[in-house]
Amino acid sequence: MTSPNASPESPQSGPPTCPRHPGRVSYVRCQRCGRPTCPECAVAAAVGVQCVDCVREVQRAAPVGRTALGAPVRAGRPVVTLTIIVLCAVSYLLQQVLGWSGWTAKLAFAPFLGESEPWRFITGAFLHGSILHILMNMYALWIVGPYLERMLGRWRYTALFLVSAIGGNVAVALFADPAAQSWLTPTVGASAAVFGMFGAVLLVLRRMGQGARGMLVIIGLNFVIGFVVPNISWQGHLGGLVTGTVLGAAYVFAPAAHRKVVGVAATVVVAAVVVGLAVLRYALV
């Protein structure tokens, strides 16, 4: 029998051991909880060391810094933006290796395939027609993406990209003529999603009181290019821009106390409207 007042160093209990690594003797103690802490579990503090459990507890209790639009402040790289770029790059590589029939034809969007294979509304955004095409889109994404990802947060930013991509392809289907070649023409590229980001970042800049003239010029030039350069879908650009602007407005101007609810509701509603327009379009064919 041992005395309840015996210290951990007493002969009855033996030398102190790290609670996370039983059997590992440690005479260093955490400055917060006083438990023995082995070198693997010790974290340097202003005075002495703390165990990893106490450090995690403090981190959980600490207030989370947030941007002006309510997103958690994150240090490091723009994970979502980099993921999209990598996915587009890998997809483009597969396009070159596997050819049209092996990869592109299975994922590209075309109005006549949208009803039977609806995943193409999204997958088409990760395909590109040429090296110049993907370089231009990825450059534009890199220009606005990290800023939007930081201000909106990862989930709203991801939703903005995906819903804008869908909205762009839905617009392609709405403007296409079922009796003409436009109904059969495939559309690829992240341009619609990028235009959706253009619309959203314009609102963010205005909300933050920053000059938006440069972004307006970029949007205008890119939109005009869609009309004067062949093989560019101005319909997709328009659909992505409208979708991204509407969804971005909900994200940017939501009341601070209800940002999460408004963000989720707006994402569901805008996505439902976009899908509803697609369903209506195919019902009228």
What is this entry, summarized?
This protein is mainly α and about 280 residues long. It contains ten helices and two strands; from the N terminus they run E-E-H-H-H-H-H-H-H-H-H-H.
The percent of residues in helical segments reads 55-70%
| Helix count from the secondary structure assignment | 10
Q: Which class do the helix and strand fractions yield?
A: mainly alpha
The number of distinct structural domains comes to 2
Number of strands: 2
- Biggest sheet overview: 2 strands, antiparallel
CATH superfamily of the largest domain: Rhomboid-like
Could you say what the CATH topology of the largest domain is called?
A: Rhomboid-like fold
Q: Cα distance, first to last residue? A: 86 Å
Descriptive overview:
With 285 residues, the protein is an all-alpha fold. It has two domains: 13-62, no CATH class; 79-283, Rhomboid-like fold, CATH 1.20.1540.10. 59% of the residues lie in helices and 2% in strands. It is built from ten helices and two strands. Strands 1-2 form a two-stranded antiparallel ribbon. Helix 6 (154-175) runs parallel beside helix 10. It is elongated and about 85 Å long. The chain starts with 41 loop residues before the first strand and ends with a helix. Residues 1-12 have low confidence and may be disordered. One of its GO terms (biological process) is proteolysis. It is found in: Membrane. The chain crosses the membrane at residues 79-101, 121-145, 157-176, 188-205, 212-230, 236-254, 261-284.
